[in-house]
Write a structure and sequence with these properties.
Strands 1, 2, 3, 4, 5, 6, 7 and 8 form an 8-stranded mixed beta sheet that branches. This protein has 2 domains: 1-80; 95-280, Nucleotide cyclase, GGDEF domain (Alpha-Beta Plaits). The relative contact order is 0.11. A hairpin with a 5-residue loop joins strand 4 and strand 5 (222-226). By secondary structure, the protein is α+β, with helices and mostly antiparallel strands. It has helices at 2-80, 83-92, 113-117, 122-142, 170-187, 189-194, 228-239, 249-254; strands spanning 98-110, 146-151, 154-160, 202-216, 222-226, 244-248, 261-269, 273-280.
């Protein structure tokens, strides 16, 4: 009996050891599985973070592209219409027509344009017009005058309280712009000769009076002005001499430097009869 008890007592530690070994082995397996799960979780987290960063970069790039496109659109709007009108169009999608009681309209065109350019290479012709009109754009902007549009070789501007910012001396501003345009053309005759149009001449006609303005079109928006003032300015430029600025009597009367104008004679304007013209002294 004593030996049986001793045998059972002797076997208990062995069983306990085996149980401990099994538990330890299971614990090691569980630990390995846990580490594997943790490694997989960390890898998944890294992939998620990388995906988020990539999406963030894409969103930032898209936002930057949208901002650049917005700036280009706003620049384009301001290049084809007065700033206040462009802001109104952006805000409401439409522009309220305006009536301006006193504005000054100017037409500039090149003498014998069709005849002198009909044999020119089209690429050279467009390049030449782009150079001149680009210079005209800079000149009128510098003097606070708004470009309306170009019609063939005719360049049309308007000055007045288009932006609702208060009355300006639009007659003086337009006459200053006309003087600078004439000087630019005369100072670039050598370049014009290289463009195969030697002796380029320009005529400028100016008239002051009431106008209506607005934005027309849906697909291609266009700022434009209308009224008898526009027609009279066109008559002035048609009757103008080469490299000369003609003012209507209304414009000449409003110029605060009367010593700068001399009578240029009477002109016959279709639908308007006889009109008095005054020549602006530009030098």
């Amino acid at each position: 009996m004593t030996s049986d008890v001793q045998h059972r007592k002797g076997s208990d530690p062995e069983k306990l050891l085996r149980r401990l070994e099994k538990r330890l082995a299971k614990s090691e397996k569980d630990r390995a599985e846990l580490e594997e799960l943790m490694d997989g979780s960390q890898a998944f987290q890294r992939r998620v973070i990388m995906d988020i960063e990539a999406q963030k970069n894409q969103i930032e790039q898209l936002y930057a592209s949208l901002e650049a496109e917005k700036e280009r659109t706003e620049h384009l709007l301001r290049s084809i219409m007065p700033e206040t009108i462009a802001e109104e169009l952006k805000a409401s999608g439409k522009v309220r027509p305006r009536h301006i009681q006193s504005a000054t309209v100017m037409f500039t065109d090149f003498v014998d344009f069709t005849k002198k350019t009909e044999s020119m290479d089209p690429v050279a012709l467009v390049g030449m017009l782009d150079r001149y009109y680009g210079a005209f754009d800079d000149i009128v902007a510098r003097h606070g005058v708004e470009k309306v549009k170009t019609i063939g070789d005719a360049y049309m501007t308007v000055a007045g309280d288009l932006n609702g910012s208060g009355e300006i001396d639009h007659v003086a501003a337009t006459c200053a712009a006309a003087t600078a345009i004439l000087a630019y053309v005369q100072n670039n005759l050598d370049q014009t000769a290289k463009d195969e149009v030697a002796g380029w001449g320009v005529r400028i006609g100016i008239h002051t009076g009431p106008i209506s303005s607005g934005v027309v079109g849906t697909k291609r928006l266009s700022f434009d002005i209308w009224g008898d003032t526009v027609n009279t300015a066109a008559r002035m430029v048609s009757a103008c001499h080469v490299n000369t600025v003609f003012l209507s009597a209304d414009t000449a009367a409003l110029l605060k430097a009367p010593e700068r104008v001399v009578r240029g004679g009477d002109i016959e304007a279709k639908g308007k009869g006889t009109l008095q013209a005054y020549r602006l002294l530009t030098s």
